Amino acid sequence: MLETRDLTIRFGGHVAVNAVSCTFAPGTLTAIVGPNGAGKTTYFNLISGQLTASEGRVLLGGRDLSALSASARTRAGLGRAFQLTNLFPNLSVLENVRLAVQATLDGPHRRGLNLWSIWSDHAHLNARAHEILVSVAMAHQQEAPVASLPHGDQRKLEVALLMALDPQVYMFDEPTAGMSHDEAPVILNLIRKLKQDKTKTILLVEHKMDVVRELADRIIVLHNGTLVADGEPAAVIASPVVQEAYLGVAKEPA
Fold first, then answer.
1. pLDDT tens track for 211-240
2. In the prediction, which pLDDT does 159 show?
3. Residue 245 C-beta-side C-alpha neighbours within 13 Å
4. How much is the CA Rg of the chain, to the nearest whole Å?
5. CB atoms within 10 A of CB 212
6. What whole-number distance in Å separates Cα of residue 43 and Cα of residue 147?
7. How would you class 234 by CB atoms within 10 Å of its CB: exposed for 0-12, middle for 13-18, buried for 19 or more?
8. pLDDT band for position 110 (50/70/90)?
9. Which end of the chain has fewer CB atoms surrounding its CB within 10 Å, N or C?
10. Are strands 169-173 and 201-205 parallel, antiparallel or unpaired?
11. Could you report the per-residue pLDDT of 116-172, keeping only the tens digit for each?
12. What's the pTM value of the predicted model, to 2 decimals?
C-alpha cells in the first residue's frame, strides 16, 4: 500500500500541493487528472522524491520514505517514468536494460574481482535484460544505440527499464506524450500487461480522457493542488465539478 498523508509543498507563498492524503492499493490503476497547473506532476515529484515536501509524509508498506532521496525511494520500490525519456542515448538498448537489472542486485552481485563471477553475472544480467526486451517486443533492436530509436520506441524502452527495476509501484507521467496516433497503443498495451500483476500498484498522470476511461480503476482529481474528487471512473467523470471545471464541458443554460 502506497500512502500520502497531508502531502504539501509551498513555493514562496504559493501552495502547489495542499495537504493531499490518499492511499493506493496493489492491484489497482489510479489516474490522476486535473487542468494544467493543478499540481499533478508536482504531486508525482513529491511521491517519487524529486521534490521535498514542506509538510506531510509518503509511506510504502507502512515504511516512511519521506526522508529518502529519489534514488533511495526507487530502491524501496517506487518506479517512475518521466514525460521526457531518461535513457543513456549512446549505449545500446540491451545495455540500458542491463544497467537497470544490475541496479536491483544486492551486494555480492555488485562486487568482487573474480573473473568467473564477473562473466557469470554479466551473462545472467544479459539474459534477464533480453527476457524483458522480448516482453516489450524490442529484442530485435537490442544492439541498436538508443539515440537511433524513434520517439515511440524510446518510450517503450523506458517502460522496459521500469520493468527491469521490478518496483512495487509503477508511476507513469503522461506516458503517451509526444507519441503519434499509431505509436501510443503500444505503450498502453504495455501498461495493460502490467495491470495483470495484482501485486503491483500503478499511478498514471494523464490528460487524455479516453485513455483514463479505458485503463483506470479509480480517478482522483486535483485542482489548485487540492484533492477535489476521488472515486470510480464513471462517477468521477460524470460529476458536475469534473464535467464543468476539468473536462471543459460547459454547463447547460437553465
1. 888 899 999 999 889 999 899 998 888 887
2. 87
3. 15
4. 19
5. 19
6. 30
7. exposed
8. very low
9. C
10. parallel
11. 444 456 788 889 999 999 988 899 999 999 999 988 888 889 888 888 888 999 999
12. 0.85
Could you tell me how many residues make up the chain? 254
User: Which class for 121: exposed (0-12), middle (13-18), buried (19 or more C-beta within 10 A)?
Assistant: middle
Strand duo 55-60 + 63-64: pairing: antiparallel
- In order of their start, the domains of the chain are 2-245 (3.40.50.300)
Q: Where are the alpha helices (DSSP H) in the chain?
A: 40-48, 70-76, 93-103, 107-110, 115-135, 151-165, 184-195, 209-215, 233-238, 240-245
Count the neighbouring beta carbons within 10 Å of the beta carbon of residue 233.
Answer: 18
Q: How far apart are CA 72 and CA 115, in angstroms?
A: 30
φ, ψ for residue 78 (rounded to 5)? -100, 120
Q: Within 10 A of 207 (CB to CB), how many other CB atoms are there?
A: 18
Query: What is the distance in angstroms between the CA of the first residue and the CA of the last residue of the chain?
Result: 45
- Look up cell 531518461; give the residue: 86
Question: At 5, is the secondary structure helix, strand, or coil?
Answer: strand
The answer to whether residues 7 and 46 touch, using CB atoms and an 8 Å cutoff, is: yes
Cβ atoms of residues 188 and 201 within 8 Å: no
Please name the residues in contact with 196: beta carbons below 8 A apart, sequence gap of 6 or more.
none
Which residues lie across from 184 on neighbouring strands? Answer: none
Measure the CA–CA gap between 159 and 186, rounded to whole angstroms.
11
Q: Which residue is listed with cell 504495455?
A: 190
Q: Which three cell numbers stand for residue 149?
A: 530509436
